[in-house]
Design goal:
single chain; 125 residues; mainly alpha
């Protein structure tokens, strides 16, 4: 599928929140075509698109207040990654949580994105 067509389909069919989180056009700027969901997923992973960094204490606190007030989810994620309490701060917790949320948001739209490629195969036949 031509990259331009993929970008156009994304803008028409994917959630605004996903499009705000990921700048697909930026990640695909040097590609003429993209062939599958798996290829697209790998491009995002190779470009660290799922690694969201929340910097500045005030931004981190604001993010956590809006998304994980109890810190339960953030602390669970930190534990999964092997962090110890003395190595944690609000920026790390917010970044871990935000990264997990970005990944979840992407995979919630997986069927729609895969459909782009399936529909494109039908069009080419």
């Amino acid at each position: 599928m031509k990259t331009e067509k993929f970008i156009s389909l994304s803008k028409e069919n994917l959630s605004d929140k996903l499009l705000e989180t990921f700048d697909f056009q930026n990640y695909l700027q040097n590609r003429d075509e993209i062939e599958s969901f798996e290829e697209f997923e790998q491009i995002l992973q190779d470009n660290n698109a799922f690694d969201i960094e929340v910097i500045y204490y005030s931004e981190a606190i604001k993010y956590l207040m809006e998304n994980d007030t109890s810190l339960q989810e953030s602390l669970e994620i930190a534990n999964e990654f092997g962090y110890s309490v003395e190595n944690l701060n609000s920026e790390i917790l917010a970044s871990l949580h935000s990264s997990r949320e970005a990944r979840n948001l992407f995979y919630e739209e997986q069927d729609t994105i895969q459909g782009f490629f399936e529909d494109n195969e039908d069009d080419e036949e």
